[in-house]
């Protein structure tokens, strides 16, 4: 807008105030006159449009946002004082009106009327103010027009005293005194802002008389402040009278202050008084998120005052906003100034500076107001967002408030609110070390406290971290700008956030060096002995937070020194858990920063080894071992977390020591599974690092760093022996097989030491594939992963080699066979033999076994065996019966072989698969249980004989069939009639005997007396052992065979059923005394021979 404005016409037509003296207007009914011709060169055009009065336009309540940007989302009204550049005009001393034209105020006046008709103009102003205050039912527009008149008038006064003061000093002094007196009267006539404070907070809809009267007082205060600013900063400021007293403190004051400073104090007291009712309704939890500004106009007035006072400080070296505010806040709650001095009587036109009623929590009120006012420094004098000047920090005031607060016991809820306010301000300015020192003096005495709210809510519960990783992440969160969950954090955690703010800037190291003595001095031998679990946890959090900001290695060494002072009697209790947790957490920090941590690793490993020895000792009872369980989990998880974020180029190998193996052998099953999973992650991390180095240096062997080799050796020495030993137990977890596979991968780059395994990767694989001591579930799970990994499969299994040597049963050459196989690589035969052991000993519905069966069927050797022309054998989509179909296919392949040489080739390949079947199931046969496993053994071997008996039987050489018959069907107890047979044995024989007889029926029984003897013995032993009643005759296992043979003639001698029938009839005749005549008659009719 042009500066050649010659009129201050409001947007509505000027009006004549009611009851206005007509005679008074007669003096101003002449046409407009032109004054001060000497200033005409500053005038552009006498016909310029009038400037609209700058009033407050209410936009409702103000709600601060959570986070650091409290009020930056707020937008001031375009026609309000801030957006109208009124501060800019004040700062460059540009008047809103020019002196050589008329002004439209309470009518049309010459510009020089203020000097000639001072009394009358101010009388009009007071009358207009009275109309605003008394217009309860009047239209809002007319009230707003009167507000604009007052604003225009005060802007006119400001422009006049800036440009048109009398030249004569005496006249000038007289005129200034008159103007000050009338301005004072205006102030007295209007009253303070808080006198007209509404009951409820303002909104856009509340545009009644109370709303206008309240905003009229805001406008009056602001415009009076601008006039006083002009007067006190003009060249004639020294000529202002010094005896003008607008206000004074309730206890009296001797200091002579300028009218501007007096009005500032009055305005600040008034605005603070306005905020007290709001504060009294708040709980400490709501301090940070409830504004002290009753509406947006109040906030805008605060911004105007802040900007004006800061401008005066920069240009005239006066007191800053914070200094003047702090002087007033110091009186809040001060009982010395609550009562008036009885010896001094105040004039009726002098305002008393006090905040009444006083807030119930004076220090909380001061902190609340200061925090919200601090965020108003994010606005510049144009009302736009900006970054606050570092020199404008208010932390000196906050520090004094906190010091007063700490002099008395403080509730946790209040202290949390206090620290949230400090954190909020720290987003604008860095907190001073003096403030942190004051707070540390408080918290250092209460480290054993849980800093918990005394409520039933879980919000206040203190949480002690159970792992070093969670502890590190929590401390790292405090050092970041992430303020999620701020409302749930304890006062101590908020203090650590504030400390991180101090140490988070570029000069943090020097700041820490200045205050670390105050922190370290609180921890000495006696104090460390006094700390409990919570105290140690809080101390650890403190040191970790500092370590994240400054020199982590120095903090780690100091922390380790303090841990050594912990009471040794609690070395294996909860205190020791906190010591380990803190040491592991600070180790993670050092690993991430690539700094030396060997001193921590040695200390932790030694402590863990000592604990492991006690755990494995026989002197500890169950409850004592349970107390050590959290320590084991803490250590193992911590080591895993350290390894996963490191390059394994330091002292990480020190963590893997003899204690790991000792703990694995003595801990519970659940904890063992947890440790095995963690160790698997550790081995995989080493593999990934080596794999990455291989990709970078594929032509070099330098990827095998010494530190990697040292780490691998520790794993081989202290972990792998347990994996091998525990794989042979009755109930090993499947996670053991996962770890075994990881070790097999590791052996590709780091072979096991000779003392552990002398044959490299093939020796490792044979431990879990060829060793019959390994539990079948481990072997099955292991093989599945090996066969699914092509690189590992090629490394340990010679797919192109087929063993053609004819093996002997393990019972005949056990020692020789073991030594011979140990020198050979794994072959397909080894894989199939391992699979066969799993089929015998595992449930057929096991998903792991089904998967392994599919892998076995894809081997070249088995594919050759199943490539039969028999259309009845299908090898696709087999599910849990895949093993059965494979046996059928092998039998078909052998039966369909064209000549003796081809049959010999099939036998040579297949015989090693089944040669040790009886040896593999010997433990189950010896105990006749469990029943499910025993039944599975009989069923599987029964089908083996049914389909493959001709392949498994040789008259001239040792073969597995006789041993199977002897061990499963005709063991020695069967022939001992003095002792009853095991019920489990009787049960499984009843269900599976027919399978073995069907297999024997495929042999040439006519020319083989051994087969004849075995069939005779079976019929003789089992025919009388089962019921031969008429109702059960067809359920008898021996008799049921004949019905099956009648429908399954393939590969079976056509006369075998007659041979068996003759044996049955013969035995029935011998036992005619024990069998009823009806049964014998029925059987003779059923099996009568022609």
TrEMBL record:
Keyword Magnesium among UniProt keywords: no
Keywords: Chromatin regulator, Chromosome, DNA damage, DNA repair, Nucleus
Location in or out of the cell: Chromosome; Nucleus
Residue ranges occupied by any Protein MMS22-like N-terminal domain in the UniProt entry: 82-724
Residue ranges occupied by any MMS22-like C-terminal domain in the UniProt entry: 848-1069
GO CC terms in record: nuclear replication fork
Stretches for region Disordered: 1-21
InterPro entries registered for this protein in UniProt: MMS22-like, MMS22L_C, MMS22L_N
GO biological process: chromatin organization; double-strand break repair via homologous recombination; replication fork processing
Origin superkingdom: Eukaryota
Main location: nucleus
Family as reported in the entry's similarity comment: Belongs to the MMS22 family. MMS22L subfamily.
Protein's name in the database: Protein MMS22-like
